[in-house]
Structures are given as structure tokens and as C-alpha cells.
Design a protein that fits this description.
This protein is an alpha+beta fold. It has one domain. The chain is 13% helix and 20% strand. The protein is built from two helices and five strands; from the N terminus they run βββββαα. Strands 1-2-3-4-5 form a five-stranded antiparallel beta sheet, covered by helices on one side. Strand 2 and strand 3 form a beta hairpin. The protein is globular and about 35 Å long. 26% of the residues are buried. Keywords: Plasmid.
Length: 125
């Protein structure tokens, strides 16, 4: 079953505290999680997962007319004042997608240039 997202929404992203899955949002009773793609700019900056299923790749643009793209473009992990998900909630959300830490792994085809033995639960630096 294909998963899709409503690009007309502007999710309230919160930081997870994890390096490779830095943001999540609860949207319409689903968890949306962004994976930071280490291979950026060869790959889009993020991959979106909805309830642990891949939706697609995206690079945000704060000036985009598409609310979802603008919301992602406005994210800045270096801003400590961004809201954080509670540690237990963040861990539960990230554990659902942790097996997809490498770009392409969600399709069973990890990028040979971007893959490494990464720990999805590595905290932000």
C-alpha cells in the first residue's frame, strides 16, 4: 500500500535529538519522520517516512509555495530553541525507522557511496 502526504500542510516539526533522524511531526494521527541523507547534495536532503513507511525524498525551501516544502526549508538543527520531542517519545518514533538509516535502504538498495555502519540512535552532536 502506497503512503502519501498532504503537501498543503505545514507540520509542526520537533527535534528528536537524533543525528540521522533529526525531526518528527505528528500529523493526522500519523508520525512523520525526516531522515537526514548523508549523501546530500547527491541525494535530496531528507527522506520522509510516514508511520515507518517511506514516502519520498525532499529538499526543503523556505520560500516554496508548497507549505510542506517551506516547513522543511525552515528547519535549522543548529537552533537550540527549536522544540524537542520528549526522549521516550523520540526514541519510540525513531526506532520505527532506524533500520532505514542508510539512503536507499528503505528500497533494499542502500547507496554504496553513502552507506556506512551508522547507528540510527546516535544523538545529535
Amino acid at each position: 500500500m502506497a503512503v502519501s502526504v498532504d503537501t498543503s500542510v505545514r507540520p509542526s516539526w520537533v527535534r528528536t535529538g537524533y543525528k540521522f533522524f533529526p525531526y518528527a511531526a505528528q500529523q493526522a494521527d500519523q508520525w512523520w519522520v525526516l531522515r537526514f541523507n548523508v549523501g546530500f547534495p547527491e541525494h535530496d536532503m531528507y527522506t520522509i517516512f510516514v508511520d515507518n513507511q517511506v514516502v519520498g525524498d525532499v529538499t526543503g525551501d523556505p520560500d516554496s509555495s508548497v507549505p510542506l516544502i517551506a516547513s522543511i526549508g525552515a528547519l535549522n538543527p543548529s537552533r537550540p530553541q527549536e522544540p524537542m520531542l520528549d526522549p521516550a517519545g523520540a526514541r519510540a518514533v525513531v526506532e520505527g525507522v532506524a533500520r532505514f538509516v542508510d539512503y536507499g535502504s528503505e528500497r533494499g538498495d542502500s547507496c554504496v557511496f553513502c552507506s556506512d555502519n551508522r547507528d540510527a540512535l546516535t544523538p545529535e552532536a
